[in-house]
Design goal:
The protein is α+β, with helices and mostly antiparallel strands. The chain is built from 16 helices and seven strands.
Length: about 325
Amino acid sequence: MTELTVGAGLARGLARFAIAKGADADALLARAGIAAADLDDQDKRVPMANYIALMRAAQELSGDAAIALHYGEEVDLSEVSIAGLIMNASADMREAFVQMNRFGKLAVEVETEAGESRFKHVLEDGQLWLVDTRADPNAFHELTEVTFARQICGLRRFLPRPFALEVHVTHPAPAYAAEYVRVFGCPVVFDARWNAMRTDASLQSHKVALQPHYVFGVLSEKAEALVTELENSKSTRGKVESLLMPMLHTGDVSMDTLAAKMGVSRQTLFRRLKAEDVTFEKVLDDLRHRLALSYLSGRKASVNETAYLVGFSDPAAFSRAFKRWTGKSPSEMRG
């Protein structure tokens, strides 16, 4: 099974929230197995296992068993993830829902039943329900808490009346069950058949646009790139490329070196790449090609500098490779 991750911004936000509530910063991160530097860039990824450990440590060290509810209540998704910014820049609630499913993985990756979208609308007995379809939700029920709290409380900022009319959760009632009612502002059913919110259907067309709509296009382009990067990181090819990039200029980019860095044998790496219908040589060649085009376009680097950066000790060998890639010499491409 592919390792699930969360955006580093989400983990950083939780850490800061817990520290503000009295948790010791060093102890919190140590118990979560997270280095402070891991959270510097909010678009980087943190393994889900570490995020769960962070949440559990935050509960204990802050003395707040309901910290997931409170984190969702007080910290908007737009403060910790580009997914929240895009939802806030959506034209209306319908578009925001589409973007939540499209880019939600940038905040939190989950497994869903039958691989469907995480959130779906279900019309039952004339009532519209927003259902969270993630698999095995009770294994980390705090994610249900923070998700629903963030959705409900975030919408209060601009909707004219409550969006959630009733909340169902599949886990048993915790000792702080009364806090659910306070945070959600509606009846809550525990040990339910699904994790779902009964919603006010008339608000589906309500305007959002908390930011100018042109921002939506800018953010979407950035988010699409992050989704591609995230999806590539799940493939062997993506992992090889991410390891190769900082090593190219050293020239030490053999398959044996990469296999050692990945903690597998050369034969295992060969088989994994073959399963993706690619070879190590092809990945290396394509990466050099892409990076060379990037360095030379816009005059970011000279021809000789580019040759060095993509791992060629001989500029002539680089020129031959570039001619093979593009049909032009590096100097012609650089203009």
